[in-house]
């Protein structure tokens, strides 16, 4: 903007100079150049401005490590639910087969297959799928984290333990499940692992959306309102990606495959 003002002032100054001299012709040429530059600058500003307004949010934050699912990342605005009064999503409702099914659906497609060319781009090595040469097993961590949160929910509200579609079923089958009387409960070790997985994910993605306080006539005080709009990765899109590459349960991981 400052450069535009300077250009304009210089153009003004040259306009008051006498005409019909060799010098003035040079100035005229200079004026024309300056005006052309000014127009060009305005045009560029307009183009860049419009471009900026329509540029979608970046697909990945720049330092993110490679994921075969990065093409599935899209952003959308989502208003969060308070989980109070009349704003309680199914996941936070009283335990029932319907509620449990909704939770399971969140991480039902955890175990995915990935190709060799994708696997070599990942920061860490993964295991080949037995009987599927060229394919490797992965699970997007979002599904692991959701599974972990569900394990904590099931521990808080005991009932039939849901182990289906478990992203780390191998850990669960042995040490993670313990019997207490006639109720199957999760082991403390597995719950500790789950709390850690969720804590680190929350810190890692460090959501900076401001939670606000607003006056509430009923409580006669300003109360916390976290039902605000967030910019979110479109979970549905990521779930679709995983569904396309889903292998249902994990493959047999007990056979050593020569790399
Ligand atoms: C994954 O790679 C990182 C970076 O090289 C390394 O620090 C970490 O220990 C690796 N983890 C596994 C499980 O391979
Ligand atoms: C075991 O299950 C029965 C029937 O569901 C119940 O009455 C009993 O209290 C349970 N025992 C324990 C130790 O939880």
Automatic annotation (TrEMBL):
<keyword id="KW-0472">Membrane</keyword>
<protein>
    <recommendedName>
        <fullName>Cyclochlorotine biosynthesis protein O</fullName>
    </recommendedName>
</protein>
<keyword id="KW-0812">Transmembrane</keyword>
<dbReference type="InterPro" id="IPR021765">
    <property type="entry name" value="UstYa-like"/>
</dbReference>
<feature type="transmembrane region" description="Helical">
    <location>
        <begin position="32"/>
        <end position="54"/>
    </location>
</feature>
<dbReference type="GO" id="GO:0043386">
    <property type="term" value="P:mycotoxin biosynthetic process"/>
</dbReference>
<comment type="pathway">
    <text>Mycotoxin biosynthesis.</text>
</comment>
<dbReference type="Pfam" id="PF11807">
    <property type="entry name" value="UstYa"/>
</dbReference>
<comment type="similarity">
    <text>Belongs to the ustYa family.</text>
</comment>
<keyword id="KW-1133">Transmembrane helix</keyword>
């Amino acid at each position: 903007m400052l450069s535009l003002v300077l250009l304009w002032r210089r153009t003004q100054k040259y306009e008051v100079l006498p005409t019909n001299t060799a010098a003035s012709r040079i100035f005229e040429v200079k004026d024309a150049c300056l005006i052309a530059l000014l127009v060009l600058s305005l045009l560029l500003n307009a183009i860049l401005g419009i471009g900026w307004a329509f540029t979608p949010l970046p697909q990945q934050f720049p330092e993110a490590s490679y994921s075969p699912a990065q093409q599935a990342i899209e952003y959308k605005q989502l208003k969060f639910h308070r989980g109070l009064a009349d704003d309680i999503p199914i996941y936070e409702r009283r335990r029932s087969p319907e509620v449990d099914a909704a939770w399971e659906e969140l991480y039902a497609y955890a175990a995915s297959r990935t190709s060799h060319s994708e696997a070599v781009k990942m920061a860490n090595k993964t295991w080949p799928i037995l009987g599927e040469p060229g394919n490797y097993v992965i699970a997007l961590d979002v599904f692991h984290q959701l599974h972990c949160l569900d394990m904590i929910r099931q521990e808080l509200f005991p009932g039939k333990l849901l182990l289906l579609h478990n992203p780390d079923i191998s850990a669960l089958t042995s040490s993670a499940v313990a019997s207490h009387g006639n109720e199957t409960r999760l082991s403390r070790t597995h719950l500790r692992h789950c709390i850690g997985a969720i804590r680190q994910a929350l810190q890692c993605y460090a959501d900076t959306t401001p939670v606000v306080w607003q006056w509430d006539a009923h409580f006669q005080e300003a109360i916390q309102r976290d039902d605000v709009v967030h910019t979110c990765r479109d979970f549905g899109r990521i779930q679709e990606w995983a569904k396309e590459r889903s292998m249902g349960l994990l493959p047999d991981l007990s056979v050593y495959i020569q790399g």
